[in-house]
Fold:
Amino acid sequence: MAILLIVAGLIAGTWLLIRQPNPPSNSPSQCEIKEITFYYLDQCGWCQKVKSEGTIDKIEALGVRVNKINAAIGPIRHKFESVPTFVINDKVYSGYKTFEELEELLGCAKTENQPSNNKNQPQSLPKIQFSGEKGETVNLENGEVKLTASTFNNNQARFYNMELPLGKTIYFFVVKDKNGIYRAAANACAVCFKTYKGFRQEGELSD
Structure:
């Protein structure tokens, strides 16, 4: 049974990306440290914040191997008192860390052409009552929503809503067009639809 993975984040309100699992990256490491361990718990809000911000994906994109271990399951190879916990070069760092903080701890090289992390930071949008189609409530697990691909075989849009770890609810729909391409759109940003009654799409999305 084919499954769609929808990754959710915050860019000028909301973005959605449909993808299938990618093979492990074979790109050479850009950092002095080649491997780290990340301990987390599913019910840990700060752990989910790390995941929802894409911190782990960004670290792996630098060529660093991340051993992700659920502290409730194990195996536990280090001593720590809270999660999230990062083990870097045998040193334990407990507590929330941004990508920039971890990048520095990993000794990652920064190029002159690397974009500033603060240059295009989205501005927070005012809370306005969403009046569009709210649809079915789905759960976000490890930064992803799993939907059965066959649900969209009739080429009709299906509407959904979900709550992000920080309490923000987003609304979106998914549709399979006549060319077999899966497309998703989230509740609109202020630039696109100032009434907040519509949806917008972030780029070309495919299965």
Notes: The helical segments are 45-52, 55-61, 99-105. Residues 9-25, 115-126, 188-197, 200-207 have pLDDT under 50 and may be disordered.
